[in-house]
Design brief:
This protein is an alpha/beta fold and 369 residues long. The chain has 2 domains: 210 residues, Alanine racemase (TIM Barrel, Alpha-Beta Barrel), CATH 3.20.20.10; 129 residues, Lyase, Ornithine Decarboxylase, Chain A, domain 1 (Beta Barrel). The protein contains 11 helices and 19 strands. The strands form 3 sheets. The protein has an 8-stranded parallel sheet. The chain has a 6-stranded antiparallel beta barrel with strand order 10-13-16-15-14-17. Strands 11-12 form a two-stranded antiparallel sheet. Helix 1 crosses helix 3, helix 4 runs parallel beside helix 5 and helix 7 crosses helix 8.
């Protein structure tokens, strides 16, 4: 039989989480963000569940081709725009909308030959300081684009750095609104955290959701502001389950060590289980001893270091567990149990995004309802 580890992608959870984004921003159109191969879930696997979105947003042209090959005829947005001039040819052929965040991209458009003008999203650097025109340079960039026959509609976009934290979005929203005052075009500002946390700037006046919202991590069942709020708070469901089984059981006595480096020593008599899952499967090697895990739907903890192909879990309080018992590393467990990927990520000093995207190719993946 094959090794018992597998990942499940839950289509109903994906659709439900997308509906949650719509409910939070009822007057906006929704981008389903499927960059990084749909955050590790697989574009082809999530497509049917997310085709109720108004558009798909992603990063590279190969992923855009995959979306079109699946039959999607609606908007597709390249969030970082084109990386070289010839990318514009594929944008024309596939009817892709694309971000413009620097002068070079405007230069490329100015010499691009196309029969159909492009829809572009002009990006402002309102304080994130990654991509985009500064507020002072934004209107000049808009004017350059507006003068080009290669450009049709210009939408206005920015990205929040602290929508999930204490600093919030008011400072960036103020910079954006001051710079775009009286400029026409649809607007896209809100990422997952802003969709759920910020219907307004906080003063009841400035709308944050605007015309397009970008639903990313929330679609996949991770809380964008964890640990302040968890997925239960936001009524989200895990869209990915990583599960395996116990392939061994070991009794321990006080002083017995577990795993490489003997980083865990039994404080007394214990019973541990060995799980067919390790860092070669995408489980984080740096997850600390004590990381939560479900065995037969009951929450317990890891012990010792994660190995390439195995990890150990504490069965001391689970006398019923044994060889073949189901182990949920994250996601939806048996009997309605659930282990949020955020809980695992926190123990590994990372975020749920990284764990989703790090799922190894050797793990079989299956789409389920």
């Amino acid at each position: 039989m094959p090794r018992p580890i597998e990942a499940l992608i839950h289509s109903a959870a994906l659709a439900g989480n997308l509906a949650r984004a719509r409910a939070a921003a009822p007057d906006a159109k929704v981008w389903a963000v499927v960059k990084a191969n749909a955050y590790g879930h697989g574009i082809e696997r999530v497509y049917e569940a997310l085709r109720g979105a108004d558009g798909f947003a992603l990063l590279d042209l190969a992923e855009a081709e995959r979306i079109r090959a699946l039959g999607w005829r609606g908007p597709v947005l390249l969030l970082e725009g084109c990386f070289e001039p010839r990318d514009l040819e594929l944008c024309s052929r596939l009817d892709l909308w694309h971000a413009v965040h620097c002068d070079a991209q405007i230069d490329w458009l100015a010499v691009h030959k196309t029969h159909k003008p492009h829809r572009v999203f002009l990006k402002m650097n309102s304080g994130m300081n990654r991509l985009g025109f500064t507020p002072a340079a934004y209107r000049a960039a808009w004017a350059r684009l507006n003068a080009l026959p290669q450009v049709d509609e210009i939408s206005l976009m920015t990205h929040f750095s602290d929508a999930d934290g204490l600093r919030g979005i008011a400072h960036q929203l103020a910079a954006f609104e001051a710079a775009v005052q009286d400029l026409p075009g649809e607007r896209s500002l809100a990422n997952s955290a802003a969709i759920l946390r910020h219907a307004t700037a906080g003063d009841g006046r400035a709308a944050v959701h605007h015309d397009w919202v970008r639903a990313g991590i929330l679609v996949y069942g991770s809380a964008p502001d964890f640990p302040e709020h968890d997925i239960a708070h936001w009524a989200l469901r895990p869209a990915m389950t990583l599960r395996s089984r116990l392939i061994g059981v070991q009794p321990l006595e006080r002083g017995d060590a577990v795993g490489y480096g003997s980083s865990f020593t039994a404080p007394g008599p214990m019973r541990i289980g060995i799980v067919a899952c390790g860092y070669a499967d995408g489980y984080p090697r740096h997850a600390a001893s004590g990381t939560p895990v479900l065995v037969d739907g009951v929450r317990t903890r890891t012990v010792g270091r994660v190995s390439m192909d195995m990890l150990a879990v504490d069965l001391t309080a689970l006398p019923q567990a044994g060889l073949g018992s189901e182990v949920t590393l994250w996601g939806q467990g048996p009997g309605g149990s659930r282990l949020a990927i955020d809980d695992v990520a926190q123990a590994a000093a990372t975020i749920g995004y990284e764990l989703m995207c790090a799922l190894a190719q050797r793990v079989p993946v299956r789409l389920v309802v």
